[in-house]
Amino acid sequence: MYCVRNITEDLYWVGGSDRHLALFENIHPIPRGVSYNSYLLMDESTVLFDTVDWSICRQFIENIQKVLKGKPLDYMVINHMEPDHAACIEEIILRYPNVKIVCTQKASLFMHQFGFAIDGKIMEVSEGDTMSFGKHVVAFVAAPMVHWPEAMVTFDTYNGVLFSADAFGSFGSLDGQLFNDEVNFDRNFLDDARRYYTNIVGKYGPHVQDLLRKAGTIDIKIICPLHGPVWHNDLGYLLDKYDKWSRYEPEENGVMIVYGTMYGNTEAAASDLATRLVEKGMTNVVMYDVSKTHVSYLISETFKYSHIVLASVTYNLKIYPPMLNYIMDMKALNLQKRTFTLIENGSWAPQSGKLMRELLDEMKEMTILDNEISLNSTMKEDDVDLMDSVAESIMESMK
Ligand code: FEO
């Protein structure tokens, strides 16, 4: 059964949601599912903006058939070639053999790499090119590395719709709701939007900044991303979040304590520090067990908070493996501008503090507060004064 929504009088959402998939990109848990958005414009020419993941192809085809009502499909604009959006390109060609594919030169290259039968169908476009489909005239804007090098966004100059590819997307299925003001975004989507952005596009902050600068020069009325809600008001809210995330600025003054514990002793020290912080007036404190929290959630929260405490046992004379995985992911995603406190633990040769410091020193604009703690097996009464001074130095650094 088809399931479509009108966005404007002649623009339709023809995507769908996958609530079965456990891991997006076979890495990131998506307990709330994910939507794959595609849009169909019914002007003098008919134009499809991106396709969808293979998992919802049947729904997608029914949606297109419902909107087209037997008309041919003239164009398919491919803003992003990653298979979660491009998987159904050949399926569309099979059903609409005269369709022309509008995309960047690099997207065309990738289609060939993926083995798509697209010969004779490609119309290559570049930054600044425009195309008229009737009353709608669109402009193509390069968006390299948001999130692949071939990516572009398409701006409809007639109605101010921006087809933004991966930019401004979110994990989470669309459960009947489509628009940002039909969902409780802060409650239900913000964490998933941050987790999606930081883990998928987070590495490419400078490229997102480039796109935001270009977006600032056009009069955007509606943002149609490839995942998550369509934004038709309050665009400043979303643009502000993207600006912060892509400049690696924290959203909140607060302390995120990530601990790697084997028998609960490092966790007990982390709890002690958390309690001291709260007693000193910092109530925005969160604690995460690095072994029990998927790293995609840790990364998202690390983008959110200003201060991070890493408390790790020493394991095989190295950093505890789940903690190492988290720090290496942080590094891979180019995270910057955070203030760290380090707590190491070890029963005979504590090493994790020194090793964590070395990794953080290799990242940009990371501050490590001086008074780190080295524990031997457990926190003891003798460690209380130092722990209190650590809490104090975190409070000081927030001023
Ligand atoms: Fe949703 Fe980069 O694909």
Q: What keywords describe this structure?
A:
24% strand; 399 residues; seven-stranded mixed β-sheet; alpha/beta; 33% helix; binds MU-OXO-diiron
How is the secondary structure organized here?
Layout lengths: L4 E4 L2 E3 L2 E3 L4 E2 L3 E2 L4 E3 L2 E4 L3 E4 L7 H12 L6 E3 L5 H4 L2 H7 L4 E4 L1 H9 L8 E3 L5 E3 L4 E6 L9 E5 L4 E3 L21 H17 L3 H11 L6 E3 L10 H12 L5 E9 L4 H15 L5 E5 L5 H10 E11 L2 E2 L1 H12 L6 E7 L6 H10 L5 E2 L4 E3 L8 H14 L2
Parallel strand pairs: 8-9, 9-10, 10-11, 15-16, 17-18, 17-19, 19-21, 21-22, 21-23
Antiparallel strand pairs: 1-2, 2-7, 3-6, 4-5, 7-8, 12-13, 13-14, 14-15, 19-20
Helix pairs in contact: 5-9, 6-7, 8-12, 9-10
Distance from first to last alpha carbon:
57 Å
Shape: elongated
Structural class: alpha/beta
Strand content: 15-25%
Query: How many E strands?
Result: 23
SS summary, helix count: 12
What portion of residues is helical? 25-40%
The main pleated sheet reads as: 7 strands, mixed
Ligands and ions found: MU-OXO-diiron
Low-confidence stretches: none
Rounded mean pLDDT is: 97
Radius of gyration from the CA trace?
Answer: 24 Å
